[in-house]
């Protein structure tokens, strides 16, 4: 009876995925079913099945999670990002930045260059969201100018942004993983680097050697270098580790000043900013509804039951590592937040790693890496929603081009097998030394 109740608690997620992903795949069109409608149906279903408390308390549980400070902070970033992106676009800042890029870089280097830039910026600032804000408008405008595939270029930025999110010392996921597993950041970084670097090198090789149509600009595009300043300021501040809110506000102020210098009226500029904020409305609704729905699943005991089920019957060090990766991946699938997923399964993962002798740096690395893989792949993750909203494409459009997270998943799987042999071999040598 208890297990049936737990399965029922997870059913809103099944309803959402079935309605949006499965049906869309069957009909071959992800525009037919709006993401907001799929979330609405799943949320209503979550309210219906959560019967342990009065209806008013169910609404309050939904609202509490939707109004979580982390969620509202993300909404704040969305608003500022929409404002800056539209203002920069309408006043020519992004267009000039793209034009200078096209005029200076050889076309064969643009794709690998964009991926490396995303890796570097995300590593420096410790957030994939900030990287998306800084690079997606540039990537989209470049693709538009040269007739490139916009979802492909968005996927390049998304993949690179999670490279740094996974590795950076100032990333929320790094902090959460190291704190829950009890290791220092340098140890976790070294363990993580052995996973992320091979995946990044393979991905870079694909972009360099792959048989992709390389868009080329047939002529030099005129550009105003001064209009590039707001955009460069956002990138420089982001790389310097400045808070993303301060970074975006600075970009907006600079874009406003340069727009005035170009002859735009104050009310016209304010109109651009307003339309940018309005354009984030759908994304904000999706974020709030997803957080509320997942909060109801958690309140009904769905997440807890899932953790208990997966952690039972763990056998062997290889199985223990696999379960840690699977646990955080599934919870990330349910919560659409990699930091929350790590914090949710951190204590259970610590118990498993202690029981089977897995070093803390390894369990922390598995938690961070596996959660970032899932977060990059799900179409309802904040990073993908923001990137595709800025690009004006469906959340699922970049999915087939996300090479980096799939390659990283393969590297993790290989490392679980190969690392076990290495670990067992060295443990045997140590045992012989101390006998």
Report on this model:
The chain is globular, with a radius of gyration of 23 Å. With 435 residues, the chain is an all-alpha fold.
List unreliable stretches of 5+ residues: 424-435
- Major sheet details: none
Oligomer: single chain
Number of helices: 20
Helical fraction: over 70%
Number-wise, the strands total 0
Structural class of the helices, strands and pairings?
mainly alpha
Which H/E pattern describes the elements? HHHHHHHHHHHHHHHHHHHH
Instruction: Using the CA coordinates, give the radius of gyration.
Output: 23 Å
Overall body shape: globular
Tell me the strand percentage band: under 5%
The end-to-end distance, rounded to whole angstroms, is 51 Å
| Average residue pLDDT | 81
Write a concise synopsis of the structure shown.
This protein is mainly alpha-helical. It has helices spanning 2-27, 35-49, 55-66, 69-90, 93-104, 107-125, 128-146, 150-167, 172-181, 185-209, 229-239, 244-261, 266-279, 281-299, 302-311, 316-335, 338-356, 360-377, 382-391, 403-434.
């Amino acid at each position: 009876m208890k297990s049936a109740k737990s399965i029922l608690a997870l059913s809103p997620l099944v309803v959402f995925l079935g309605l949006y992903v499965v049906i869309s795949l069957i009909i071959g069109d992800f525009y037919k079913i709006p993401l907001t409608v799929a979330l609405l149906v799943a949320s209503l279903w979550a309210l219906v099945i959560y019967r342990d408390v009065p209806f008013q308390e169910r609404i309050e549980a939904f609202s509490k999670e939707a109004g979580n400070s982390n969620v509202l902070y993300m909404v704040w970033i969305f608003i500022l990002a929409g404002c800056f992106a539209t203002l920069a676009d309408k006043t020519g800042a992004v267009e000039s930045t793209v034009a200078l890029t096209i005029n200076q870089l050889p076309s064969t280097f643009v794709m690998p260059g964009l991926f490396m830039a995303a890796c570097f910026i995300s590593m420096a600032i410790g957030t994939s969201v900030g990287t998306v804000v800084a690079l997606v408008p540039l990537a989209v405008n470049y693709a538009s100018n040269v007739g490139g595939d916009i979802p492909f270029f968005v996927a390049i930025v998304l993949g690179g942004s999670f490279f740094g999110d996974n590795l950076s010392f100032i990333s929320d996921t790094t902090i959460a993983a190291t704190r829950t597993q009890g290791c220092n950041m340098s140890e976790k970084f070294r363990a993580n680097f052995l996973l992320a670097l091979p995946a990044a090198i393979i991905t870079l090789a694909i972009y360099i050697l792959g048989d992709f149509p390389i868009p080329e600009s047939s002529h030099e595009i005129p550009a105003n270098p001064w209009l590039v300043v707001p955009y460069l300021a956002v990138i420089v501040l982001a790389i310097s580790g400045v808070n993303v809110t301060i970074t975006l506000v600075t970009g907006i102020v600079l874009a406003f000043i340069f727009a005035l210098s170009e002859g735009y009226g104050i009310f016209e500029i304010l109109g651009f900013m307003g339309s940018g904020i309005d354009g984030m409305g759908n994304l904000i609704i999706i974020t709030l509804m997803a957080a509320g729905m997942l909060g109801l699943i958690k309140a009904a005991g769905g997440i807890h039951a899932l953790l208990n089920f997966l952690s039972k019957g763990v056998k062997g060090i290889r199985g223990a590592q696999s379960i840690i990766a699977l646990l955080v991946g599934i919870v990330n699938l349910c919560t659409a937040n990699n930091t929350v997923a790590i914090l949710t399964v951190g204590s259970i993962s610590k118990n498993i790693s202690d029981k089977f002798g897995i070093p803390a740096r390894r369990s922390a690395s598995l938690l961070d890496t596996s959660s970032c893989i899932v977060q990059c792949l799900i179409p309802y993750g904040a990073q993908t929603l923001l990137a595709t909203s800025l690009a004006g494409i469906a959340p699922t459009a970049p999915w087939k081009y996300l090479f980096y997270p799939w390659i990283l998943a393969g590297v993790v799987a290989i490392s679980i097998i190969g690392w076990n042999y290495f670990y067992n071999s060295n443990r045997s040598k140590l045992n012989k030394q101390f006998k």
